[in-house]
Amino acid sequence: MGYSKLGRNSSARKALFRSVLVSLFKHERIETTEAKAKEISGLAEKLITLAKRDDLSARRQVVAELVDKEVAKKLFDEIAPKYKERNGGYTRILKLGVRRGDAAPMALLELVK
Questions:
Q1: CATH ID of 10-111, from 3.90.1170.50, 3.40.30.10, 3.90.1030.10, 3.30.930.10
Q2: Out of 34, 50, 74, 93, which could bridge 105 as a Cys pair, Cβ 3.0 to 4.6 Å?
Q3: Is 32 helix (H, G, I), strand (E, B) or coil?
Q4: pTM of this structure
């Protein structure tokens, strides 16, 4: 299967992932649906691994993916150095139960301390 389409076309899905990634790196934890959390988790892991390299090419790739330069700067200056000694597993998904309005399974996606 590969990945979840989340009921969106490819451009809307990419825009959603960008905005959720920016929120995750800005606030270091977000509450979202389980399906979105599972998809975003892998993308966040890849961006953190890229940021750990900390060269010009990595910076350009991260800025191209995130668009928000302030968040990209925070990723390189604050978040990536915390994980220098860690080989993956930068995010954690905690299940929260169901959303009241539509009973969608909710989860807390956070960066591991």
A1: 3.90.1030.10
A2: 34
A3: strand
A4: 0.91
